[in-house]
Write a structure and sequence with these properties.
Structural class of chain A: alpha+beta
CATH superfamily of the largest domain in chain B: Probable tRNA modification gtpase trme, domain 1
Number of helices of chain B: 4
Distance between the termini of chain B: 44 Å
Radius of gyration of chain A: 14 Å
Number of strands of chain A: 6
Strand content of chain B: 35-45%
Oligomer: heterotrimer
Number of domains of chain A: 1
CATH class of chain A: Alpha Beta
Structural class of chain B: alpha+beta
Order of helices and strands of chain B: EEEHEEEHEEHEEEH
Chains: A alpha+beta, B alpha+beta, C alpha+beta
CATH topology of the largest domain in chain B: Gyrase A, domain 2
Helix content of chain A: 10-25%
Distance between the termini of chain A: 34 Å
CATH architecture of the largest domain in chain B: 2-Layer Sandwich
Radius of gyration of chain B: 17 Å
Helix content of chain B: 10-25%
Number of domains of chain B: 2
CATH superfamily of chain A: Folate-binding superfamily
Strand content of chain A: 25-35%
Order of helices and strands of chain A: EEEHEEEH
CATH class of the largest domain in chain B: Alpha Beta
CATH architecture of chain A: 2-Layer Sandwich
Largest interface: B-C, 55 and 62 residues
Shape of chain A: globular
Shape of chain B: globular
Number of strands of chain B: 11
Chain lengths: 95, 187, 984
């Protein structure tokens, strides 16, 4: 596969390491009342869609950017690629 | 002056030079290297300071810039590698830190890397067998981080006939072996 | 031997005669021949034995779709089994042998199978070898293994090397027949980056196999002209002998270029083959079409061939399988074979055409509405029996049949992703349908457009369309006029009543087998395939799938498209494993990382061990030491009694800087770092988000905003990746920058009571490293040996007074020598990873064996380290109830009651009395060693509730080896439990 890196253009997926669902960016608040449940859901409950999936890829053999790749798991069509850092910032991760 | 004697990444007293067919592959030991990463929100300040104090204008994504004796190439978002001659700038990281202060995180990288300079007309034939970089369309001053023989490297195209390969120093022998065996196979 | 079946003309170089052997017999061919064409020219039709029935076989085709003529090439390490004689390019000194026969091709013992064919039908394996069950392993399997497969390997190492590489292009053109060449010319002239690849050694496809493809010039002439123009273009790469074997995601193709298969051996240092990964923006599939046989009784005798192949042998290679050839067809195209053969003096006694309305052909009799119903000839065809339209039978003597059931577009590469072929009624064949791989355009015969005119125009149009997608304007190249007539075909698949009529020649599947599959209700195409093994040979059923589907369709009363189609997978044709391995073989299988002291260690005669990609010194044998334990014990004792030096460069080092560096470390480590003073180092434990501890190390604070984090050697890459995840995805607003400096610094542990004294000789005098000035866990930037910048950390893995000293890597070798020289007066020893391991076990430090992916901080006795006052990765889930039970596993030491008893790591622990079973398991030993200081075996173990069980005796059990050993639970800190040595 080729991943259209927002900064570097098309790069071979071989240069990347796959992590999983991009919802891992949305780490719960450790002090919330339901923190244990929230962390459980965050870590273990994932969708496994046949179709569009937002997922995290790390450009390990490249610029070391984490990317959020929106990919169709049936066709491998890549619909969108964003810098995970931008996604996280937009989500208001303030830490 | 200290009394310790340096060895080359390939483990010798002097750099290795091989000429195979149209290519010369030389082990480079004379560049000092430091990484410069802009602190949060300081990219403009870093660019301005280096431009003003060292006449070095930092390159954009995938590019290198020259301001002899310094040169720089892009390595990651808001991060660059700066090179300079080792003899005169062994303490390059400290020199840069002195210029940049709290605007940047500067890390000595000199011995983190081995460098091989590949010079000759057939270097595109060589690199298309070693890496997935589109070497034929990588013009001068372009830089790409990728892998060669399963080793993470920077490929820096200095001119039509000159590419510098930076790889992790510990893997110098494996990287060199790959360069040499492919050079022989295309010679 | 005379080339009795060599005709006039052809594209062979008669000035270059080549000697070759087949089954030890010497023959002569010409440059431009394949093994098959040369053997046919020499009158040899028999080239192999079939897979199951060992039936005599000759070539069916003239290309890579060949199912029959599989041979072994060369000998020794270069022996290559199952190679198609139809694509093996001849060279002087070429040698090949037939296979799957014993003792000889002519007299094959296993041909007895053919007599028992009634028992060896489809599903035979499933039905026959079921009982008695015990016979499987001892009897059936060895016999089947011996009988299975075709060619053999010698078991010797392949002496050649294989290369690999990466190519990039705008347009990849696969196939260099009329469509491919027209596309290449069009795209090349437009200035696009073009690769044109063809599996053949001579490009041109059907243009060089046909006599009248072009109206006003010879096909070969236009091909030569076109290739010359393409070769002159800097933007076009012409790759003959290159098989594009797979279409992968996003325009990536796999291809194998045979650089030296046409030579007796590759030149020194030159590859035999090169595996290319081709990144294409667009691809034109111009792979042509594959002719299909007609199933008639005994249609597999040597001499029964496809009509297009017979024509190709005659026109391109000036070879004929026999001097008398009967044509059997259901279409007009095959009639050209008769015309071409007769033009070269070969007798065509008749054309047997299944169509009552077949056209006439001058010079031979066309038997309209007739069928071939049987054939004769033990080792090669001698005659056929024809049933004419009026039902009479008639035997015709002939040495070959040129048959044609029509043509199938060569779809392989269009199916490698999600492409499903669709049926096309005009040509009675499947054509590429929806779901083609991204960027593919199909042209010419591969698309079902079977005339030369359509192929040329279609190829040019495909290139124009593909480039237009890329924003490149191209004009279709002007092309020569070519023949153009509608395909005249009436479907005909098999002769009624035929049983042993072959569909799949390579896997010996006949019409009868398909009928049996139907009878037993394996009618779905995927069932049919697996039940009969149809299409499952290395040719993937290129010549057989559609014919078998047609038979099944007839049996079920469905149409062929309703019956379905099988699709193809990579590789298009078999690819040598060596090509996939490329340069990564033997010691080059993975890169090797060498430590800064490697050269020095080699000089000392060190024994090395692979740790990931690293080579580390395992121990340093001295003269007179005959067992590794002697060396390791000495290294441990000498270190503990005086001083030892160990290269610890391999530990990951990550430079962490920024205003929020301390806050960042608080996030990645379970324990707190905010209050760590500058000039101090702290042990840190990293958790996974699920609360399991996965790595540990130290972080040294060099400045308020600057730390150096160390990781274990094994987890250096993972820890860095995780840290970048936290930085970019979880804490994007933090001011923190990371970079690896593992390689930049040569780092040595200097351990033992004399370590300070040794270092005082190395560290420049202006730096005070006394216990007061540089206490335990201190760190700082110093200079050594007269001014070299260095870093010093007072940390200890061994439990001794110890330091780690780091210098720029290029000075690492000199530093090691300087340390050993300075240590001479203390009898300093270098120590390797074994002694390092013994000492950390003696000290009770956890390592990879303990951080095994299931253990928590609590298990490690570090539960209190997990701060509840701050967030960190793994914090919340590490507090889960199930991970904090009272009887949770706890890291303790174990010591045998009898000191000499060995303690195997991995052994389980049971109570002193009671049953030995999983239900009564008390824990397990993670690490074990012989401690020369304690003169006893010792181990680290996880024991249920172990912290409160010190002094208790347990049984260590190792049921695999019948071992039971009584051990005592002790503190994991066997050495210096109070840490006095560390702080001395």
């Amino acid at each position: 596969m080729l991943i259209d890196h927002p900064l570097l253009g098309l790069r071979d997926a071989q240069e990347f390491t796959y992590l999983g669902d991009a919802s891992l960016i949305n780490r719960p608040d450790w002090q919330a009342e339901n923190a244990a449940q929230a962390f459980h859901d965050y870590l273990y409950l994932r969708d496994n869609p046949a179709g569009e999936h937002r997922e995290l890829w790390f450009h390990e053999q490249g610029d070391r950017s984490w990317l959020v790749v929106t990919r169709n798991t049936l066709t491998h069509e890549i619909l969108k690629v964003e810098l995970a850092r931008d996604v996280a910032k937009a989500a208001g991760k303030a830490d | 002056m200290h009394k310790l004697k340096a060895i080359t990444p390939l483990g010798s007293d002097s750099p290795r030079i091989d000429t195979i067919g149209a290519l010369t592959i030389s082990e480079g030991v004379d560049s000092a290297l430091a990484s410069v990463a802009a602190r949060a929100g300081q990219e403009t300040a870093v660019r301005d300071l280096l431009a003003e104090k060292l006449s070095l204008s930092l390159p954009d994504v995938g590019r290198s810039a020259d301001a002899a004796p310094l040169a720089a190439f892009w390595s990651a978002p808001e991060q660059w590698m700066i090179t300079a001659p080792h003899d005169t700038h062994e303490l390059l990281a400290s020199e840069l830190k002195a210029v940049l202060g709290d605007a940047a995180s500067v890390v000595e990288q000199t011995d983190g890397w081995c460098r091989f300079d590949v010079i000759g007309d057939t270097l595109e034939d060589l690199f298309e067998r070693l890496s997935n970089a589109p070497i034929r369309t990588m013009g001068a001053s372009s830089v790409r981080r990728t892998t060669v023989e399963h080793v993470g490297v920077f490929l820096w195209r200095l001119s039509e006939t000159h590419v510098a390969v930076f790889g992790p120093r510990s893997s110098a022998a494996s990287l060199h072996h790959g360069l040499i065996s492919v050079a022989k196979s295309i010679a | 031997m005379a080339q009795n079946n060599r005709l006039s003309g052809g594209l062979i170089n008669r000035d270059a005669a080549l000697n070759f052997t087949f089954d030890g017999k010497t023959y002569q061919g010409f440059e431009g021949d394949t093994l098959a064409s040369a053997l046919l020219a020499n009158g040899v039709r028999l080239m192999g034995r079939s897979f199951k029935y060992h039936r005599p076989r000759g070539p069916l085709t003239a290309g890579s779709e060949e199912p029959n003529a599989l041979v072994e090439l060369r000998s020794g390490g270069r022996q290559e089994p199952n190679t198609r004689a139809t694509v093996a390019e001849l060279y002087d000194g070429f040698s090949a042998n037939s296979q799957n026969r014993w003792p000889s091709l002519e007299r094959d013992f296993m041909a007895i199978n053919d007599r028992f064919s009634n028992f060896l039908t489809a599903g035979f394996y499933y039905k026959t070898f079921m009982w008695p069950k015990a016979f499987w392993e001892k009897l059936y399997e060895p016999i089947i293994r011996k009988a299975a497969g075709l060619g053999s390997l010698t078991g010797e190492d392949d002496p050649d090397h294989y290369d690999k590489g990466f190519l990039h292009c705008d347009l990849l053109i696969i196939g260099a027949g009329p469509a491919g060449l027209a596309a290449a010319l069009t795209a090349g002239r437009a200035g696009a980056q073009v690769i044109v690849a063809d599996e053949d050694f001579r490009m041109g496809g059907r243009l060089i196999a046909e006599t009248g493809a072009l109206a006003e010039m010879a096909g070969e002439a236009w091909v030569t002209e076109t290739l010359a123009e393409l070769a002159s273009m800097g933007n076009v790469r012409v790759m003959p002998r290159t098989t594009v074997f797979g279409a992968y995601d996003h325009g990536i193709y796999g291809a194998v270029e045979r650089n030296a298969d046409h030579l007796i051996a590759p030149a020194t240092d030159k590859p035999r083959q090169t595996l290319w990964r081709i990144y294409s923006k667009r691809a034109v599939i111009a792979t042509g079409a594959i002719e299909r046989p007609i199933a008639f009784e005994n249609n597999d005798r040597p001499g029964v061939m496809l009509a297009g192949a017979v024509r190709g042998y005659a026109n391109r290679w000036a070879a004929t399988p026999a001097q008398s050839v009967v044509v059997f067809a259901n279409n007009d195209d095959a009639h050209q074979t008769a015309r071409d053969l007769m033009a070269r003096g070969v007798v065509v006694p008749a054309i047997v055409d299944t169509r009552p309305d077949a056209p006439d052909v001058a010079g031979t009799e066309v038997l309209k509405g007739a069928e071939i119903v049987d054939s004769s000839g033990r080792l090669g065809l001698t005659s056929v029996r024809v049933r004419t339209a009026n039902g009479q039978t008639r035997d015709i003597a002939c040495g070959a049949v040129a048959m044609s059931g029509g043509w199938n577009p060569n779809l392989g590469l269009t199916c490698h992703q999600r492409g499903r072929p669709v049926w096309h009624n005009d040509i009675h064949a499947f054509v590429p349908g929806e779901g083609l791989p991204v960027g593919q355009i199909v042209a010419g015969a591969a698309k079902g457009e079977f005339t030369t005119e359509a192929a040329l125009k279609g190829g040019a149009a495909a290139a124009v369309a593909a480039l237009s997608d890329l924003g490149i304007t191209a004009a279709a190249a002007e092309l020569p006029a070519a023949t153009d007539a509608p395909v005249a075909i009436t479907p005909f698949w098999h002769v009624k009543g035929a049983k042993r009529a072959w569909l799949d020649y390579q896997n010996d599947v006949t019409v009868k087998d398909v009928k049996l599959a139907h009878q037993e209700n394996f009618t779905a195409v995927e069932h049919l395939k697996r039940y009969t093994t149809l299409g499952m040979a290395t040719d993937q059923g290129k010549t057989s799938n559609v014919g078998a589907l047609a038979v099944m369709a007839e049996l079920t009363g469905k149409s062929i498209p309703e019956t379905g189609t099988t699709i193809f997978r990579p590789p298009y044709t078999p690819v040598a494993m060596g090509a996939f391995g490329g340069r990564a073989v033997g010691k080059d299988f993975h890169p090797t990382r060498l430590t800064p002291s490697h050269k020095w260690a080699e000089e000392q005669g060190a024994v090395f061990v692979e740790v990931g990609n690293w080579l580390r010194a395992q121990w340093f044998p001295r003269k007179g030491e005959t067992h590794w334990r002697q060396s390791v014990d000495r290294e441990v004792l000498q270190t503990r009694n005086s001083v030892g030096v160990c290269d610890v460069t391999t530990l990951g080092k990550i430079d962490v800087q920024g205003a929020d560096a301390a806050a960042f470390l608080n996030k990645i480590y379970a324990n707190g770092f905010a209050k760590l003073a500058v000039g101090k180092t702290r042990y840190g434990l990293m958790l996974r988000e699920d609360g399991v501890a996965y790595d540990d190390g130290t972080a040294a604070r060099l400045a308020e905003d600057h730390f150096v984090v160390t990781t274990t050697t094994a987890n250096a890459v993972l820890a860095y990746r995780n840290m970048e995840f936290v930085r970019q995805c979880l804490c994007p607003e933090m001011d923190v920058q990371l970079i690896s400096t593992t390689e930049a610094w040569a780092q040595y542990a200097v351990a033992g009571p004399n370590s300070r004294k040794l270092l005082q000789k190395i560290v420049d005098p202006e730096f005070d490293i006394s216990n007061e000035a540089f206490p335990f866990m201190g760190c700082g930037e110093i200079t050594v040996c007269g001014g070299l910048r260095a870093r010093l950390f007072r940390i200890s893995f061994s439990g001794e007074l110890a330091y780690e000293i780091a210098v720029p890597t290029r000075y690492g070798d000199a530093m090691m020598r300087a340390l050993m020289e300075a240590g001479e007066e203390f009898d300093a020893v270098p120590y390797g990873t074994e002694a390092l391991g013994v000492m950390r076990i003696e000290k009770g430090h956890a390592a990879g064996n303990e951080l095994n992916g299931t253990t928590t901080a609590l298990n490690l006795g570090l539960g209190r380290m997990v701060s509840t006052k701050k967030d960190c990765i793994g914090n919340v889930l590490s507090r889960r109830e199930g991970m904090n039970t009272k009887d949770a596993l706890a890291l303790v030491g174990v010591k045998p009651v009898n000191a000499a008893d060995p303690l195997p790591a991995g052994a389980h622990l049971m109570n002193a009395t009671g049953p030995v079973d999983a239900a009564h398991d008390q824990g397990y030993v993670t690490s074990a060693a012989y401690s020369p200081i304690l003169e006893s075996s010792i181990g680290l173990a996880f024991v249920k509730g172990g912290f409160d069980r010190k002094g208790e005796k347990l049984r260590l059990v190792n049921p695999l080896e019948g071992q039971e050993t009584l051990v005592e639970i002790v503190s994991a800190h066997f050495v210096d439990p109070e840490g006095e040595k560390l702080r001395a």
